[in-house]
Design brief:
Shape: elongated
Structural class: alpha/beta
Low-confidence stretches: 3-30
Distance between the termini: 63 Å
Strand content: 25-35%
Largest sheet: 14 strands, parallel
Mean pLDDT: 84
Order of helices and strands: HEEEEEEEEEEEEEEEEEEEEEEHHHHHHH
Length: about 375
């Protein structure tokens, strides 16, 4: 197996291991997003919130999604996180699997680290018991790794002991830098266009063999695939978090829109098409009038918000229909979050299909938009 295949398999495994536990987010609404340093959380900590700050101890796994995630307390099990910024400064008893813009690990991870990020930072105080696998634009690995390293990136720095092989795939203009503290016990295999992309500073050691394979430009294949996968997962979590808020705060509205969608699908699709066309035209016309200018400004963001919410209502309706259908005549009576998660997963997968996916997403958007308009009186009463 060449290094490129190893990286692809590592990333796919990372995404799979992140995606599989998403269903358990059904418990997220009852979990605090801040855990004080003097608190102990027994069991698996599962949450989705804008900001998550864990200072206390977790006697289980951590499965979280959010914009800013900070884990300063010890975690007995694994950490599975998706967020813009993920900072881990507490000791982790299991593995770390992260999808993020920026990931920092500044403590001990007993098992593996799997990641897909724009930037990874592991200072010299960090230590990984097993392997480090994943992809990032820049990787600063100054912590000790007892196992091996299999990574892809543009700027990769290794500055500590590595117990096994190091397999690196560089972008066409990427660089691999071994700092003086780097001590690789196994082989160093790197894929690059030229020998000059490897910089081995005085004092750096490779006990095994060092070999280079001619690299291929990953900008059009692996990195584009990884970026696309990242965008899909970010979209999933964003919609899931907003959906959790709606289901928690206004479940009646969610159910009313679902009922309207199921009772009159075609009229709602036609109504949705009409509103999707008329509203932006009306907003533009109003903005060219002195009196209507403020109203036009208000209509545009409301219109965009409505379009975004259609994805959530459509996903919930589709997911609930599938759960009821699979129950063979019995009405689904569980948490409303399950059909939302199921529907979002299905819609995102189908939406990724070329051309057909676009048609499916348009149909669902018009369907839900028409239903939103139809129940506008109920929505007004809810917030009046």
């Amino acid at each position: 197996m060449n290094k490129y295949k190893k990286i692809v398999i590592s990333a796919v495994a990372c995404l799979f291991l992140i995606s599989v536990p998403l269903a358990v987010l059904a418990a997220a609404t009852s979990t605090p997003s801040v855990l004080a340093s003097d608190k102990i959380y027994d069991g698996n900590y599962i949450n989705a919130a804008e900001t998550i700050n864990l200072e206390g101890s977790i006697n289980g796994d951590v499965i979280v999604a959010g914009n800013a995630i900070t884990i300063n307390g010890p975690v007995a099990g694994d950490v599975i996180a998706v967020g813009r910024t993920v900072i881990i400064k507490g000791p982790i008893g299991g593995s770390v699997r992260v999808l993020a813009d920026f990931l920092e690990i500044d403590n001990t991870v007993e098992h593996n680290v799997w990641f897909l990020a724009k930037s990874l930072n592991m200072p010299d105080s960090a230590q990984v018991g097993w392997d480090v696998n994943g992809s990032a634009g820049t990787l600063n690995i100054k912590g000790k790794v007892n196992g091996g390293i299999t990574v892809n990136g543009n700027e990769i720095i290794i500055g500590n002991a590595v117990g096994k092989n190091v397999d690196v795939t560089l972008n066409s203009n990427g660089n691999l830098i071994l700092l003086p503290q780097a001590k690789i016990a196994g082989n160093l295999n790197y894929e690059a266009n030229t020998d000059s992309q490897l910089t081995k500073q005085n004092g750096a050691e490779v006990i095994g063999q060092t070999s280079r394979q001619v690299g291929k430009d990953l900008s059009t294949d692996w990195r584009s695939w990884a970026t696309y996968a990242f965008s899909l997962l970010v979209s999933f979590f964003s919609l899931l978090v907003v959906g959790l808020v709606l289901i928690t705060l206004v479940p009646k509205i969610v159910l009313n829109i679902k009922a309207e969608m199921m009772s009159r699908p075609w009229p709602n699709i036609l109504r949705g098409i009409g509103y999707a066309i008329v509203v932006p035209i009306l907003a533009v016309v109003l903005m060219f009038t002195i009196i209507g200018f403020p109203l036009g400004l208000i209509l545009i963001p409301l219109y965009l918000v409505a379009l975004y919410l259609t994805k959530i209502f459509a996903a919930f309706t589709v997911g609930l229909y599938l759960l009821n259908y699979s129950a063979k005549g019995k009405k689904y009576g569980g948490s409303l979050i399950w059909p939302l998660a199921l529907g979002l997963t299905l819609i995102i997968i189908l939406g990724a299909i070329p051309f057909l996916g676009m048609l499916i997403k348009l149909a669902l958007t018009f369907w839900a938009l028409g239903a939103i308009v139809a129940v506008k009186k109920e929505i007004w009463k809810e917030f009046r």
